[in-house]
Write a structure and sequence with these properties.
binds (1E)-4-oxobut-1-ene-1,2,4-tricarboxylic acid, Amidohydro-rel, Aro_Compnd_Degr_Hydrolases, alpha/beta, aromatic hydrocarbons catabolism
Amino acid sequence: MTEDRILSWHSNPSKPRYTPPPGAVDAHCHVFGPMAQFPFSAKAKYLPQDAGPDKLFALRDLLGFERNVIVQASCHGTDNAATLHAIKASDGKARGVAVVDPAISEEELHAMHEGGMRGIRFNFLKRLVDDAPKDKFIEVAKRLPAGWHVVIYFEADILEELRPFMDAIPVPIVVDHMGRPDVRQGPDSPDMRAFRKLLDSRPDIWFKATCPDRLEEPNGPPWDDFARAVAPLVADYSDKVIWGTDWPHPNMQDAIPDDGAIVDMIPRIAPTPELQQRMLVTNPKLLYWPEEI
Ligand SMILES: O=C(O)/C=C(\CC(=O)C(=O)O)C(=O)O
């Protein structure tokens, strides 16, 4: 019954005016199912309609991207089969970030590396996961395959509380959606200052300059607050920023964004070709296709 399942993506996204550079990577997107093949987790907090690799790759081509980084969504729990399936179907054009049971074996991690995973995600949003055991997360972060990193998703109000945990992570960190600052407060807000302090605390913290739709929800474009708050961060930390569409926009069913409009935010947060090259090509390659550098 698809009627009870959430539809959170645009059925007819526009072609963006902005053209990404060759090799551009959409470094934050997800797949949902298809459910008949890859059932959702019993602990899933939302039940979406199918958004499989065929839809994702059609969108990639429409938007002018060449590659995807597919992040395991919470609705699939720690069963990464749907994400691994999508990576395989991409013909080398996708890599991924897994969500794992911290007790995962070295053999299973190695198999995930073979399947294209290059990191694991720790999700601290209470509305998405039941628990986030920091001690176990640190333990598994110490056992990751060489070259992997940790992706962390949290909201700005717990950044300070998470600092000792992040300090203890022995591999590079990528922060989802800049730790969800209140972009309405501008580029020099307490949230943004705290996030800059985090980035300054070690040289291997990356961030995704993503989700104008989420951070200004329920506003649609032009997302001026997002552009004003985020552009200075991209300029000042241009060697640490990556970007993604966030398709199929989990939980955004009440303010579904047009993916073309999302892509058209790129020149507003990264106005020069040099910044765009770093954010869309060089930086994501360093994290996900380092063998090509
Ligand atoms: O897609 C995102 O990055 C954000 C999400 C969903 C999510 O992270 C997940 O389901 O794992 C959100 O804020 O609901």
